[in-house]
Amino acid sequence: MRNGVARAVAMVLTAWAMQGGPIPALAQTYPTKPIRVTVGFTAGGPADTMARVVAKKLTELGGQNVLVDNRAGANSFLAGEQVVKSPPDGHTCWFAGASALSVARHLYGKLLLDPERDLALVTQVVSVPQIFVVHPSLPVRSMRELAQLAAKRPGQLNISVISLGGLVHLGVELFKISADVKMNNVQYKGGGPAVIDLIGGHIEAGLFDVPAVIGHLPSGKLRALAVTSGERVKQVPDVPTTAEAGYPNVRSDSWYGIAVPAATPPDMLRRVNQLWVAAIRAPETSDALYALGVVPVGNSIEDFNAFRAAEAKKWGDLIRKINLKLE
Fold first, then answer.
1. DSSP conformational letter for 21
2. Rounded to whole angstroms, how far apart are CA atoms 78 and 91?
3. What is the topology classification, in CATH, of domain 2-127+254-321?
4. Counting runs of H as helices and runs of E as strands, what totals does the chain give?
5. Other CB atoms closer than 10 Å to residue 53's CB: what's the count?
6. Is the peptide bond before 88 cis (omega within 30 degrees of 0)?
7. Domain 130-227 has CATH 3.30.470.30
8. What is the full DSSP assignment across 209-258?
9. For a surface tag, which of 10, 40, 119, 321 has the fewest beta carbons within 10 Å of its beta carbon?
């Protein structure tokens, strides 16, 4: 019965969101004060921009101010620590990335918090498609041809690796294992320098979040081979998926979701989920997120928990296979 009521409430909230109206009296038990959304990255970056897009709609729907609080550091865990120490009332949320919620516990010996013990998941906000690209001088036009060339030149083709242990890096490792090839990893702290080096011909290939390279594809500065999503990406519809390209196991999209303190009561957690889902699925929010090159999600608590568990197992298995440990 409770699940049926929750679904009904969610439908009402989503309908109101699509009309651009405030959350009806049915759900006015939350929020009762301003909402703080902590982001573990600097202002102006992709995560911050996405968080602010959704925060704008949250303000409209919830009738309370939503503050985006940038707390960069400790691989974004400073932001998470702030949330864990906050009252479990749904008014302090962590806009957390896939690496923090599903990968970090397999990489590091010690963390500021345990994502599975200290946090309750609310909803996945977006999926961030990744795309394999090469310098146009490289004589390949598909993932199969890239694998064949790498097999002929073992360890000689240079491929960018961004943020060691992040999903972009792990996606590269997943491809090398799936294709049974050796490529030379060139490490970068961020996507910007890697894109510059790839365009300049200093490296031959790379895997990037779609927003990082989409502007360089029409001009031919970079050649796209495949996206790592389950479906083709709206912004680059002519680019096949890795499954279509012959590598169905190479799935490595990044993602962001919302988490709150683990002690948040179940009824409050449902209300937080309903508000966030309504904001994410509102047409103007979805359009703005698509324009950034990401895919809006907004799913149930149960679906998000199942997704995170599958991601944690998948990446944990890979990390152990390649024997990757970070300090």
1. P
2. 17
3. D-Maltodextrin-Binding Protein; domain 2 (3.40.190)
4. 13, 11
5. 23
6. no
7. no
8. EHHHHGGGTTTTSSEEEEE-SSS--TTSTTSPBTTTTT-TT----EEEEE
9. 321
Angle at which helices 266-281 and 2-19 pack, to 10 degrees?
30
β-strands 92-97, 295-296: how paired?
Answer: unpaired
Whether 2-127+254-321 shares its CATH topology with 130-227 is answered: yes
**List of residues 6+ apart from 36 with CB closer than 8 A:** 66, 67, 69, 86, 91, 92, 93
> Tens-of-pLDDT digits for all 327 residues of the chain?
334 434 444 454 555 444 444 444 434 589 999 999 999 999 998 999 999 999 999 999 999 999 999 999 888 999 999 999 999 999 999 999 999 999 999 999 888 899 999 999 999 999 999 999 999 999 999 999 999 999 999 999 999 998 889 999 999 999 999 999 999 999 998 889 999 999 999 999 999 999 899 999 999 999 999 999 999 998 899 999 999 999 999 999 999 999 999 999 999 999 999 999 999 999 999 999 999 989 999 999 999 999 999 999 999 999 999 999 887
pTM, 2 dp: 0.87
Domain residue ranges in the chain: 2-127+254-321, 130-227
Length of the chain: 327
**How far is residue 75's CA from residue 110's CA, in Å, rounded to a whole number?**
12
Q: Please give the Cα distance from 323 to 268 (Å, whole number).
A: 40
Cα distance between residue 294 and residue 263, in whole Å:
31
Determine the Cα–Cα distance for residues 199 and 31; give it in Å rounded to an integer. 47
